Amino acid sequence: MDRILIEGGVPLSGLVEISGAKNAALPIMAASLLSEEPLALDNVPDLADIGSMRRLLQELGVEIRHPPARPRSLVLHCPEVLDTTAPYDIVRKMRASVLVLGPLVARAGTARVSLPGGCAIGPRPIDLHLEGLAKMGAEIRLEGGYVEARAPRGLRGARIRFPQPSVGATENLMMAASLARGETVIEEAAQEPEIVDLAACLAAMGARIEGAGTSTVRIEGVARLHGARHAVLPDRIETGTYVMAAAITGGRLQLRHARLELFGAAAETLAEAGVALAETAEGLEAGRSRDGLTGVDVRTLPFPGFATDLQAQFMALMCIAEGAAMITETIFENRFMHVPELMRMGARITVHGRTALVRGVPALKGAPVMATDLRASVSLVLAALAAEGQTEINRIYHLDRGYERIEQKLAAVGARIERVP
Ligand code: UD1
Question: pLDDT tens across 344-364, in order?
Answer without folding.
Answer: 999 999 999 999 999 999 999
